[in-house]
Amino acid sequence: MRIFDPHVHMSSRTTDDYQAMYDAGVRAVVEPAFWQGQPRTSVGSFVDYFDSLLGWEPFRAAQFGIRHHCTIALNPKEANDPRCADVLEVLPRYLVKDGVVAVGEVGYDSMTPEEDEAFAAQLALAVEFELPVLVHTPHRDKAEGTKRTLDVVRESGIAPELVVVDHLNELTVGMVADSGCWMGFSIYPDTKMDEARMVVLLREHGTARMLVNSAADWGRSDPLKTVKTGRAMLDAGFTADDVDRVLWRNPVEFYGRSGRLELSDVDIDPTAGFQGSSVRRGQG
Ligand SMILES: [Zn+2]
Question: Which family, according to the similarity comment (predicted)?
């Protein structure tokens, strides 16, 4: 099984996770920019974070044979903090960089006027820079939030095939399917979607425009949920080709629209370093 996890926050994961993901067949990931579990207090924190998504983290992934890409944005939650508003001004210089395959995560957290403004502004940037967009949907009022999300996407004029609306469930999948946008599903250990429910949705809605991710971060999550969903699909009678479509070809097609995916095999160089740092410890 070859796997492309289209939404996983690797900066919060360990080297054991990278190794386990590689062993399970993960060869490529997209790491969306998001918040840090506690508020950032300045634009400089974002700049350093974006630089790590384009520098240290791809280096770390490559040490485990995995190609790492990222999406860049002011996330919905921090769009509400006036100290972070100027992040919008630094985005253009990141959106031209190799390794940045979309604008994201954008969208709604609490559906405030500040979030409205940041969401619309970043959809406009995606249009201007001809990039796909990763749209987060709120965990509260999900149906209402997703409906409003789709309205804002429509008003922006962006082509729906350049948009993935993520964190969907049984309540929200239908309206996103009808919109022409891609459908993203985060598979979690305890809450929201699990593998069994995902298999049912794939049976009902088919495999086209479907993206399955682990969304793993520093909260309770599991970076192997992609492979576990693949296994659940096989157990339920889907073919290996169906699994390959959902877990590899779909993310390649979607993020490939950036023109910036790098999917060649990684030559792992265990002696390599990045700006004087390495993933080796205690080995000189
Ligand atoms: Zn996320």
Answer: Belongs to the metallo-dependent hydrolases superfamily.
